[in-house]
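Supplementary Methods, section 5.1.

A reviewer requested that the exact input to the structure prediction be made available. We therefore reproduce it here, unchanged from the version used in the analyses.
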Amino acid sequence: MFENLLAQDEAKTALTRDLESHKVPPVLLFAGPPASGKMTAAMETARVLSCRQTGTWNCSCPDCAHHRSLLHADLLLFGKRTYPEEILAARDLVLRSPGKSSAYFFIRSVRKLLARFNPVLWEGEEAKLAKAVPLLQAIEEELGLLEPESLPGRELQESTTKAVEALYSDCSSLEAYLPEFPSVSMIRNMETWAQLAPVGKRKTVIIENADRMQDSARNAMLKILEEPPDTVRFILLTSRRASMISTIVSRSRVYAFRPRDAAATKLIIKRVFKSDESAVTLQDYFDGKKPFPGSQARDYAELMTGLLLSSQGRDESRIHSARVLDMIRRARDSGLSMPELLEKLAAQTGNFGAKNKSFSGSFIQFLKALLSTFSELLAASAEDPWLFSVADRWSGLARETATQSITFNRSPEMLLKVLVDSCGEY
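The structure derived from this sequence is encoded token-by-token as follows.
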């Protein structure tokens, strides 16, 4: 077991010991940096808990087969995905090195996304899911065209290549419908599901980025963690253990996942993605695969912030943060007006995916970079009430823009114009 969990010997040893001794606690908290193998370990733990034999990765029992395909009825997986770029990296793997293992990896990465749209979670909120239904149906049909056994390690047939590209495009569009955090209704639906008898030996609930739950959802979660059913194990994943409320941590057994060094990252990229590319972390590797990398989103966010600050008429001698002054000067040196910057950003992202689906999700990605930049302003505003007021107001406007985009599917270009007009006049 855990043959696919690389460079996490401490966590692997602890989990193997608890599973072999049948002492897995009701609530497990996997804490560690992004891309450290937490989800891999969680899915493998769920498989072993359901296994009717020895728990080895290649076990032939039906439960293991269904878990490896992420189609087991006793598995519920939700929460905001940490790395949606994994699907892009998996697509590149299939196209570059076709074969059974690469197709399997790609299909599994798609299934991780589809799991978030399990009807169990959305019961009572079908209206919110309605716009995603056509995409979900298309993805299932496209998956049916991509059987691992049909890729024996030779050049892909044109129909298979089209299916791979269509899957990636539709998954990119589907990501936009994922909520930023589990809602109270999702937690309550999960609780109802957990109280029902399992199909096999045991049920497993995996919640990625569990620290992002709002207070109402956390309180709902606490109710079932206080008296969890004997037939269910809860696995919570977090990259920010300090953000987990103490009452949840106190009910959990914590398994620590350590940062991987450059050598371990290189090994994983070579073994899993069959690539000799170099990256300090898997996060960097995934980010570099995106058509609109995070570094570019960050550059645009900082330029926009610099232009917004410049428009406020603030005397620069009264701004004491070197970082803030640098953003203002970089924006000025760019020679771009705000309309020109927004036009350039739209062109760079294929009108945020409207003209090129590979850029689907780029608008939310940009807004996240913008919010991160505004957070820097807040951190730099300790002795500047004006800067604090401006950054706080802009952060609220950016969050509302994200809500408008995700909930109501508004036009990114229109939302950006409204955001800019709300922040300053041009």
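Residues 28 and 235 are 5 Å apart (CA to CA). These observations are discussed further in the main text.
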